[in-house]
Structures are given as structure tokens and as C-alpha cells.
Specification:
Elements (H helix, E strand, L loop, with lengths): L1 E5 L5 E6 L4 E4 L4 E4 L3 E6 L4 H9 L6 E6 L4 E6 L4 E8 L5 E3 L4 E5 L2 E7 L3 H6 L5 E7 L1 E8 L2 E6 L4 E4 L4 E5 L3 E6 L3 H6 L5 E6 L2 E6 L3 H8 L9
Antiparallel strand pairs: 1-2, 2-7, 3-6, 3-10, 4-7, 5-6, 8-13, 9-12, 9-16, 10-13, 11-12, 14-19, 15-18, 16-19, 17-18
């Protein structure tokens, strides 16, 4: 499989497949494809895995697109202004993605639910208890909100981020929360009560415009339901 990511604010990934190669996607992300791409909808490993994917923000069923009778082409488009990132997954090289980030992948990639081990990070870390975990073998594409900035954290090195700005991280990283210091800062600083703390070793991907921030910025301009 060869691929090319095009577009700036509304990107699309265009995948070129050899005969017999296939891609999976969790929802209606297919934008266009060649006529020899065969679609097949399944539960993707049984009801248990399907329910886990639903909890992590994706659909119960998976769509598999396979190139038949020669090479094929299929494109997957982002659903929100932002970025599409490619991750190469292999044994010992797994990633944790924000909820609903999964876009498409080669069929060797396994998508599952990832539960936060620490209750505090789950309750106050901005993503809840449930994230997405990608494992297996192959290339996976994820969509993030806004521009993406990357950092490599050494063992024990930390990055403090506002809730909702985590896009993805290596499975070797740890996530926790810490209270904003000082009562005045909590009440008047406008940054909420808690921040998210990421600890290495591993790679982290941070997004510049979470959908929750967009919704908050636009909320004052929406008509009130009480008027």
C-alpha cells in the first residue's frame, strides 16, 4: 500500500493498493474510490470488540475495502478541519489515540479500547476513561483537530498540557492529571481546575484546536434555547 496525504485544513489521504490489498475504516470516511474496490461490512472480530470500539467513539461495524482484478485506489477524508497523521504499527510499537481519532488502516491493524488506569486522569484529563489503542501490524491513519505539534519525551520527562490537547502518544507514555496551583489561579485563571500531565519515555502528538475549544468559542453566538 502506498499513500499520499493532501490538503491543509481539510486533508484527505489517498491510498493506492495492489490487487488483494485491503483497508478498514470504522465509519463513513470513504471519500472516493476506483470501481474495483469491493466493500464488505462486518463486526470486525465479534460483538466484544465491536462494543469496545463503540465505547472508544467509533462505530460498531467495520467497512473493509479490497482491491479486486488489479490495483485499486481509495481516499479517506477528515471530518473536521485539522490534520491526518500516519502511524506505522508493529510489535512493541503501539499507540494511544484520542477518542474518535481513528480514520482508516491496513487490515493488519487492530483497534481496541484503552481504559485509563488512574481514576483522576479519566475523570479530569479531558478525554474521559476511554481512549483508542492501535496495535498489530501496518499503517493506521488518524485525524486530529487543528495543527499537530510533536515532542519526544525521555524517560521521566514530562509535558503539562491543557485538557483536550492530547492527540496521540506512544503506548509507553503515562497520562495523569495535576491540579492548577493556587485557588486564585483555579478560580480566575480561565484554565480550569486540572491540567493533563504526560510522562515519557515516548512520543506525543498535541493538537492546536480541540473540537471542545471550537464549541466553547462559538457557544456565545448560538441563539439561546430559553429565548
Amino acid at each position: 500500500m502506498q499513500y499520499e496525504i493532501q490538503g491543509d485544513t481539510l486533508p484527505v489521504v489517498i491510498c493506492s493498493l495492489e490487487q488483494g490489498e485491503a483497508m478498514i475504516t470504522e465509519r463513513g470516511s470513504m471519500a472516493w474510490m476506483s470501481p474495483n474496490m469491493k466493500m464488505d461490512t462486518t463486526s470486525g472480530g465479534g460483538l466484544g470488540k465491536a462494543f469496545g470500539r463503540m465505547l472508544s467513539g467509533d462505530s460498531i461495524f467495520q467497512n473493509t475495502y479490497t482491491a479486486q482484478n488489479g490495483p485499486g485506489l481509495i481516499a479517506f477524508a477528515s471530518s473536521f478541519p485539522g490534520s491526518i497523521q500516519a502511524f506505522t504499527v508493529a510489535r512493541g510499537q503501539e499507540y494511544i489515540l484520542q477518542k474518535k481519532a481513528f480514520l482508516a488502516a491496513e487490515t493488519g491493524v487492530e483497534l481496541s479500547v484503552h481504559f485509563q488506569k488512574k481514576a483522576g486522569a479519566g475523570l479530569f484529563g479531558g478525554e474521559g476513561f476511554i481512549l483508542q489503542r492501535v496495535a498489530g501490524q501496518g499503517v493506521v491513519f488518524a485525524e486530529f483537530d487543528g495543527h499537530v505539534v510533536e515532542y519526544e519525551l525521555a524517560a521521566g520527562q514530562q509535558m503539562v498540557i491543557d485538557s483536550g490537547y492530547l492527540a496521540a502518544m506512544s503506548a509507553s507514555c503515562q497520562i495523569d492529571i495535576q491540579a492548577v496551583p493556587g485557588l486564585k489561579n483555579m478560580m480566575l485563571g480561565g484554565e480550569g481546575l486540572f491540567n493533563t500531565v504526560l510522562t515519557g519515555p515516548g512520543h506525543i502528538w498535541l493538537q492546536t484546536m480541540p473540537i471542545s475549544s471550537v464549541a466553547g468559542a462559538l457557544r456565545p453566538y448560538f441563539p439561546s434555547t430559553n429565548s
